[in-house]
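Quick one: examine this chain and its backbone structure tokens and tell me how the chain folds. Here goes:
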Amino acid sequence: MTKKHTDIKTFGDLKASGYQPKSIKQEMRDNLITSLKNKVNLFGEIKGYEETVIPQMQTAILSRHNIIFLGLRGQAKTRLARLMVNLLDEYVPAVAFSEINDDPFLPLSRYAKDVVEERGDDTPISWIHRSERYTEKLATPDVSVSDLIGDLDPIKAATLKLHYADERVIHFGLIPRSHRSIFVINELPDLQARIQVALFNILQEGDIQIRGFKLRLPLDIQFIFTANPEDYTNRGSIVTPLKDRIDSQILTHYPRTINISREITEQEAKITDYQKKNIKASELVKNLIEEAAFEARSSEYVDQKSGVSARLTISALENIYSTTERRMLINNESKAFIRIADIYGIVPSITGKIELVYEGEQEGSSNVAYFLIGKAIRKEFLKVFPDPEKIKKSKKENPYAKITNWFGDGNHLDITQEMPAKEYEKTILSVPGLKELVQKFSPHSDKELELVMMEFVLHGLVEYSQLSKHRLDGGIQFKDLMSSMFNMGDHEEDEDEEDNA
């Protein structure tokens, strides 16, 4: 086409421009070929799928296939579908005022056929932007055939004074209105079986039936479906003949490395400009959040069939920034850095996004969240510091001895959520041996990171049973492990007395 689309206003202008119509699948195929040849990555915002999902998706598009993305929750299935809009032409022509985006070269609706027949080259043309050629429907049990395919419209019949046998009284559903567009059905197994059956001929032959009207509408649609394997047994299933008509099934997955997971989290998390500017987050803290999610995806306490959404880490990063910001506001501080103790501010992000294998009392998910955070701390600890268990078994000098001996002498250390920065620094520095240990094993830390690493040592020693940690109202307390064990009976007696009272 040599003319701009804004200059083409009639069917005659369109013919004169040399425009050649093509199916949506051919359109997407051609644009994908161009992007691959020019090394243009249209799916760049999707991380971790570069070697798996995206190549399979590109292959399916080149094959002009309808696609189903099969995977657990939070695996960017809908995001992938929405990005396919980038493979459409920026604008396509349609018969003006058509309900179903009729191609003037191949009109389908009665309205468009009549207009083209009556007005010929004077048929008015409208241009549809690619953003308007995408329809998304969440499958729910209340979705009806009328919603998807259509029904008779008595108001239209009365207004136009038409008989019910006239096909012009039909009100088209979402699928016909998505002619020449991408149509997405999310959570396909939730669609009732009888509704799935209604899709058979649309996918294969293009026939639709509305209240006795048998219409031959060769609809031109790129179908995308998404489904969660859990739904196959819990809420429904995909009818086998429908699944057979979906050409390519692509399996999605969670990020396979901490680094990729962090890229996704930092890309998607909505951290305010104020938080980014005034709150400092160490690599360690960010890794702990990701590691907690990885631990959840392999934990025996978490139902793996439900999955652990990538939204967990996104929500967690937002929460840990806000936990720190709250402390800043309370203490009227202008700058802050995220402490290891702030990691417990992500507990609400975990409890709402995991399904337990054995559902018990409400505190169950909270306890699992603390357990997962502890496992993450344990794993990250060995990336910086020597294994306390191996040192204890060997005859080598124990670098943690000075620290554990100080607690063994009856000392304890409290870190509260609202503790001001100066008090936090003074508290951490009060433990002998901590600073020397960090300077030895993490020598390139600045002052703020050094304090974080010193606190991290205490959390790590708890996970390796060298110290004990107790949750206080609004904070945590570190104590010697043995004294905590000896005092456990006294605490239980106190609790019994309180219960009796």
User: Anything to note?
Assistant: The first strand starts at residue 67 and ends at 70.
